[in-house]
């Protein structure tokens, strides 16, 4: 329950027919903000509809274990925190998109596909935070992602359980 609004803000994901490549372009790249170009489009902000499209693209990318597609949503200076990172790197925090990519390749690069299921998700527009509850096999997790004004993930943290 969200005490501020008096209701449950989590949403079940309905997976529409989507073109992941178009979604990645829409979510990650804007005129003047193509890879290697200038700054982000001013005034753009992730909203609920964009968050729903992001969840669908994020899930599809992880199902394919397309690490490059997942990292494409991250800002260059993003930070990701995970207990798995602690066990693989000695630190719970991985900083920088390229280091996150290398970490995920080490952790998941040997897997060809994953039957990731989205259980629910929630978007908090006031703080630009997306929380996703997901399951893979008998592992259940929640993961939050904070977004910048350009729609890129700047901070992410995963929590795992059984």
UniProtKB/TrEMBL annotation:
SUPFAM superfamilies: NTF2-like (SSF54427). Pfam families: SnoaL_2. Residues 55-133 form the SnoaL-like domain. This is Nuclear transport factor 2 family protein. It comes from Bradyrhizobium barranii.
């Amino acid at each position: 329950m969200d005490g501020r609004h008096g209701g449950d803000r989590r949403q079940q994901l309905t997976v529409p027919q989507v073109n992941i490549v178009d979604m990645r372009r829409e979510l990650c790249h804007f005129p003047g903000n193509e890879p290697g170009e200038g700054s982000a489009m001013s005034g753009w902000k992730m909203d609920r509809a964009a968050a729903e499209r992001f969840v669908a693209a994020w899930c599809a990318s992880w199902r394919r274990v397309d690490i490059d597609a997942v990292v494409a949503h991250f800002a260059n200076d993003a930070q990701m925190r995970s207990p798995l990172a602690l066990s693989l790197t000695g630190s719970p925090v991985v900083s920088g998109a390229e280091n996150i990519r290398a970490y995920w390749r080490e952790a998941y690069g040997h897997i060809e596909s994953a039957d990731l299921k989205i259980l629910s998700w929630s978007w908090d527009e006031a703080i630009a935070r997306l929380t996703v509850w997901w399951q893979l096999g008998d592992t259940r997790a929640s993961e939050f992602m904070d977004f910048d004004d350009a729609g890129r993930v700047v901070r992410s943290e995963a929590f795992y359980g059984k």
